[in-house]
Specification:
Elements (H helix, E strand, L loop, with lengths): L8 H11 E3 L6 E3 L3 H9 L1 E3 L5 E3 H10 L5 E3 L6 E3 H12 L2 E3 L6 E3 L6 H4 L2
Antiparallel strand pairs: 1-2, 3-4, 5-6, 7-8
């Protein structure tokens, strides 16, 4: 998968056919002696804490951006909880009220950032 000088092509092709294998999962060129290790370290199926089966090499990205159990922080109270619980929590948490120190009105937490614009 790389450009090589024409003069070296035949030797290069012989070397590659003896020593290099293309991974059937990711299509990367891997030395034949390392193929078993590559498959075991990159393509073996593991189970995430959310019970989803996923390739080991993809687990880190899954846990960071797609896993429903990944950590998430409430925008209202900074509580850390599982992402799949975030929406329900924020709906409840944002509906709480706090007294405005400026006008004394009880304002829903979700509206506190906008309230100073309309505060008497």
């Amino acid at each position: 998968k790389k450009d090589i000088p024409v003069a070296n092509f035949t030797i290069h092709e012989i070397h590659c056919s003896r020593n290099i294998e293309v991974c059937c999962y990711c299509r990367e060129s891997i030395p034949k002696t390392e193929m078993k290790k590559h498959v075991e370290s990159e393509h073996v199926q593991v189970t995430c804490k959310c019970s989803m089966k996923i390739e080991k090499s993809l687990l880190e990205d899954h846990e960071a951006s797609a896993c429903p159990l990944r950590p998430a922080v409430c925008q209202h109270c900074d509580l850390q909880l599982a992402f799949n619980k975030l929406h329900e929590h924020q709906s409840y948490c944002g509906a709480r009220t706090e007294q405005c120190s400026g006008c004394g009105l009880n304002v829903m937490v979700k509206d506190l950032k906008e309230h100073p614009r309309v505060c008497g």
